[in-house]
Structure prediction request, 207 residues.
Amino acid sequence: MTGVFPADAAGHRRPTREEAEAAIRTLLLWAGDDPDREGLRDTPKRVAKSYGEFFSGYLTDPVELLERSFEEVAGYDEMVVLRDIRMESHCEHHMVPIIGRAHIGYIPNGRVVGISKLARVLDAFAHRLQIQEKLTAQVAHAIQDVLKPLGVAVVIEAAHECMTTRGVRKHGVSMVTSHMLGSFRDDHATRREFLSIINGRGANFEG
Prediction:
């Protein structure tokens, strides 16, 4: 994929797979276990592979995902909403999961995009080290910049394991963030309509 990713921008050389596995082995030693015992012998390889999946967003260009749009919309100019999109990310402060749901809406301005692309754009940003506030804004601005709709709305509800499995250990808590652009920000009726569509769609994000 094209695009400039954080590792490139910072000028860092990307470690090899072998170097990543060696680092994981070091963490196992630091945790107090024996990386040579049978149960952990292949753990560095497995963790490196899983990290490749968790952080695949660094190799995905959200702009490229949105560029293939459609103009044959028969004059449709009402709200398009994709709600309850499963979201999985990782906290950039503790590298533990953020699990939740996202709701994405936009008002077309002559162009629409396949609905799966909205979910893929979410994944492209979510599969990076994140804070929820930034993630919410990134998704909204990517859609606004490429499709140039009349407005974009993104709401994310998520549970953060950095506060449920460590630290204050508060279970059953979810964080809600929103980012509104264009008519969703300027028109109260439009914003109310979007919020009414997604209202009452909460879910259990843990498990």
Q: What stands out?
A: The first helix runs from residue 6 to 9.
